[in-house]
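Suppose a colleague, Dr. K., hands you the sequence of a protein chain of 208 amino acids and asks what its three-dimensional shape might be. Before reaching for any lab equipment, you can write down a predicted structure in token form. Begin with the sequence itself:
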Amino acid sequence: MQVCEIRSATDSDAEAVAEIYSHYVRNTTFTFEFDPPDAAEIRHRMHEVRKSGFPYLVAEVDGRVVGYASAKQFRPRPAYRFTVEDSIYVAAGAEGHGIGHQLLVRLIEECRNAGAKQMIALMVGENPASVAFHASHGFEHSGILRSVGFKFERWLDLTLMQRALSDDIVESKDNATDRATQSATDRMTRGLHMGGGTLQSRDKLHDR
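The predicted structure, expressed as tokens, is then:
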């Protein structure tokens, strides 16, 4: 593991963050953005995150920014104020050295200290490495939105994962029922696959 310094981002980091993110915007489906934001826009996003009370972090090795992570409120409506969405990017060529791990561990800690109760991770397009990465940090699969994005001339899914940041949340009756129903459906699906049958289901997304 490459040990790095994890610290709060400053305005002077905007250029490096913009450069890191630009690679993913231009060359991957890991983000639905088409045009890389410039340093001024990154600086604005940093200010918005900090103004909301959540962290914007960078990872630094030998004075060079090699990754960044931030968290923002999952959706703008006030009922979501205890739920955050993470964003983590590591500089091209610096992957596989534990930088993302160090960023996410610190991000979770700071979001918990800021009062967040749940963290959501959204994996765009074909990104099995990010799914595995989040699973290794306690995130659970929450669903897939099929073909909701179109980039590089193809339709892309959105994978949702979730991790609790607090032990003091009382699960709602509806949520407990949903979990029981999903568990039963999973068992039925496995049984049908073992028996050679198939089961098709359609998830419903409601505007909440």
